[in-house]
Amino acid sequence: MSSDRVLPPDAKAYLVGGAVRDALLGLPVHDRDYVVTGTTPEAMLAHGFRAVGADFPVFLHPRSGEEYALARTERKQGRGYTGFIAYAAPEITLPEDLERRDFTINAIAQDVETDELTDPFGGARDIEQRVLRHVSPAFAEDPLRVLRAARFMARFAPLGFSVAPETLALMRDMVADGELEHLVPERIFNELRRALGSRSPADFLRTLRACNALQVLLPEVDALYGVPQRADYHPEVDTGIHTEMVLTQSARIAPGDELVGFCGLTHDLGKALTPSHILPGHRGHEQAGLEPLQVLCARLKVPAEFAQMAAIVCADHLNMHRLSEMKASTILKLLQRMDAFRKPERVSLFAQSCEADARGRLGLEDCDYPQGHWLREVFAAAAAIRAADVDPQLRGPAIGTAIEQARIQAIRDRMASMRESSEPSAVR
Question: Tell me: the pLDDT tens digits for 404-416?
Fold first, then answer.
C-alpha cells in the first residue's frame, strides 16, 4: 500500500477498522478509514486537510477525500450511547486508540507506507479462528455494542463466526444491569435495519436471545418463541423459529432489502396473543398483530414506510397465500389497501415478504410460490386500465366506478388464464 505524503512531518497514518478486517477475511473493501498519530489539528489543516465532524478531530484528505481521524481515547460521561467525550492529542499512541474499539477484529491497524500490521489485541488470530471478542472491559460502557455484536453476527455468522463466551457473558451482565434501557430508539432501529439487510438476519435474533437482550429491545418478537403452530402447516412448530426462518428466506429472496426483512420480522406478532384454548391454531392473528406492531414502531420511532408496509404484510399475508381462491373484486381491494396504484413498488415488496413467509417453514424452503407472479400479473393488468378506456360520456364519480369495474374484469380475465396452468398451495 502506498500513500501520498501530504501528512505533517511527524505524523503517521494507519488504515484501521473494517477495511483491515475485511481484507484479512478476503472480502471486498468499500470504505477506508485512517488514524493519524503524532500530530495536531492545526498541523493537519496547515497541510491541506479539511476538518469535518464536531465531536472529535476528523479530516478529509486533500486529494482522495478519505477520512483521517486523529488518534483518540474516549471517556464515558453519564449513561447511554451519547455519554462519551473523545480526547485527541499528539501523545496518544496507536494501541491506545485501538483499545477504545469494540471488537478485536476491528482493532487492527495497517501502516499505509509499509503495510505492517499493528495488532495488540489478537484480532488477526480471532479472524483466523472466526471469533467475535471484545477488546477490553470498556466494552461494557457502551450498551449499543450489544446490538453491534448481534449485527456483526448477522453479517459474519455465515463465515463461521461465533461470539466468544466471555463476550457473551459480558453482554448478559450489561443486559442484567439495565444498560440497554438507556439506548436512544433511533440508534436501536439503525442497528436493527442494518442487521435485517445482512446475509443472516436470523443470527441477529439468536445473538440477542442468547444474551437476554431480545426481550428488552424487541419484546413483541421475543414473545413468539415457544408459541406452537399447527405442525401440518408449520413443521418447525415454534413461531419464534418460524420468524428466524422467514428472515433467512427474506435475505435469500430480497438480498440487502431491509424493508422486506422488517416485514418478515413483524408479520406474525399476533400469534403471541393467541388465546391458549385455540392453540396451536391462530385464527385472526393477522389483525391481532397490528396493535403490537404499532407499539413496536412507535417505541423505536420506525420510519413511516417501514411501519406502513409491515402493517400491510401483517394484515394481508394470509390473503396473499389464498390468492387463487379470491374473487377479482377482493384482489382489487387488496391492491387498493396497499395503495398499489400510487405506490406500485409495494406490490413486489408485499409479494417478496409473503413468499419469505411461505418458504420460512421446515422442509419447505424451496417450495414453489406462484402467488407472487400472479399478484404482479394481475396488478399489471389492472394498472393498465386508464380513464381513456371507459365510456367518455361518463362524468364525476361514475368515471371512478367504471375504472374500478374495468380493473376487476382485467383481474378476472388474467386470473382465469393463470388458473388453467397452476393452483397455488395454501399456507397458514
Answer: 898 999 999 999 9
pLDDT in tens, 69-118: 999 887 665 554 445 556 677 788 999 999 999 999 999 999 999 999 99
pLDDT digits (tens, 9 = 90+) for 171-181: 999 999 999 99
* No. of helices (H) and no. of strands (E), the chain: 19, 11
Q: How far apart are the first and last CA of the chain?
A: 56
Closest residue by Cα to residue 243 from 219, 259, 267, 220? 267
Q: Is the pTM of this model over 0.85?
A: yes
Measured CA to CA, the distance from residue 309 to residue 336 in angstroms comes to 13
Phi, psi of 246 (to 5 degrees): -65, -40
CA-CA distances (angstroms) from residue 144 to 25, 156, 186, 187, 191?
Answer: 24, 18, 11, 8, 9
SS3 label, residue 154: helix
Sequence-ordered alpha helix ranges (H) in 254-396:
258-266, 285-288, 290-300, 304-321, 328-337, 345-359, 370-383
Distance CA 16, CA 119 (A): 10
* All cell numbers assigned to 248: 433467512
| 360, three cell numbers | 420460512
Residue type, 262: F
